[in-house]
Design the sequence.
């Protein structure tokens, strides 16, 4: 049975980190230590783990970081004040708010408040708008990671049919805009699918590249893919595994059936995730460079 090429994230992430390492050294010579602040308003262990990974990525590169936690039951104003405070703090270059927020806290309030110059994941309305008009300030980390994984493995984007499954404002929509950009790593023909797409398989079967960002294990299987397709699975779903009480992380794609059809496929875990982290720290370095340049 043919087996697809694995699009592993770690070698790609290592390249990005090597570049960030050099830039952090240069900033250090200018007396600048890049600093990221993360804000977590959740007690879900998976969200806590995602935040811890961001701090570990910063530590590895001598980027300073602050870990701000807010009780998930607190009023939205607590989060708003925290974002305002961090954005006003001259010691902080980048502010990252971990999504999802509790149900009683609207994401729009955070989008409005984030200072676009410190919004290192392009969550703010201003930075999203810049992305849509082909002039991004920072590339949103996960969509940028998907594109970088493709280009690093020399998977063509320009002129290709790319199906994105999932239309969230964090992954699907910004990724669609990134792949549509008029640039050598853009110019794709993009179809965005969602829960109301009437025949998902008919869209994914005609795509050259399928990207999934849904959160439903096994949603896409080999029967929904055309031979030789590239599959990028963004999702990290924790599910119960064989032995009692233990869990494992899987994507939206049924890996076994998909890998026998696809030409290339990301593993989960170990595909998009490490590249996303590297993209985020690269944005923190960029934010610090911009700040240092502005101060002369
Ligand atoms: P989200 O906000 O819940 O969005 C999920 C999207 O999937 C929605 O657009 C939804 O459609 C669509 N959907 C749901 N059921 C569907 C179905 N049966 N068929 C087709 N589309 C369907 O999720 P998200 O924040 O984008 O995250 C998606 C996944 O990516 C999660 O597993 C998350 O853990 C993962 N993630 C990974 C990274 C990384 O760096 N690796 C970063 C961020 C997120 P509607 O709009 O119609 O509801």
Sequence:
């Amino acid at each position: 049975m043919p087996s697809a090429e694995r699009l592993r994230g770690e070698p790609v992430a290592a390249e990005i980190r090597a570049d960030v390492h050099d830039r952090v050294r240069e900033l250090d010579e200018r007396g600048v230590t890049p600093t990221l602040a993360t804000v977590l308003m959740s007690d879900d262990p998976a969200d806590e783990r995602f935040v811890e990974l961001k701090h570990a990525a910063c530590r590895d590169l001598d980027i300073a970081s602050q870990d701000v936690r807010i009780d998930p039951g607190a009023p939205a104003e607590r989060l708003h004040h925290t974002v305002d405070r961090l954005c006003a703090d001259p010691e902080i270059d980048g502010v990252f708010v971990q999504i999802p927020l509790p149900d009683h806290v609207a994401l729009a309030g955070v989008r409005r408040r984030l200072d676009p110059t410190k919004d290192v994941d392009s969550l703010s309305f201003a930075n999203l708008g810049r992305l849509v008009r082909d002039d991004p300030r920072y590339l949103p980390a996960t969509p940028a990671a998907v594109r970088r994984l493709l280009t690093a493995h020399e998977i063509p984007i320009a002129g290709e049919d790319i199906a994105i499954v999932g239309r969230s404002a964090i992954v699907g929509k910004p990724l669609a805009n990134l792949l549509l950009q008029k640039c050598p790593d853009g110019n794709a023909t993009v179809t965005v699918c969602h829960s109301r797409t009437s025949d998902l398989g008919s869209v994914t079967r005609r795509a050259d590249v399928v990207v999934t960002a849904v959160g439903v294990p096994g949603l896409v299987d080999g029967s929904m893919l055309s031979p030789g397709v590239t599959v990028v699975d963004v999702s990290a779903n924790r599910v119960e595994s064989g032995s009692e009480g233990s869990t494992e992380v899987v994507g939206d794609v049924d890996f076994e059936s998909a890998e026998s059809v696809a030409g290339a496929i990301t593993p989960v875990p170990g595909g998009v995730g490490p590249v996303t982290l590297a993209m985020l720290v690269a944005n923190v370095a960029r934010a610090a460079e911009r700040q240092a340049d502005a101060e002369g």
Notes: Residues 142, 165-168, 170-172, 193-197, 200, 213-216, 219, 234-237, 272-273, 276 surround NAP (CB under 6 Å).
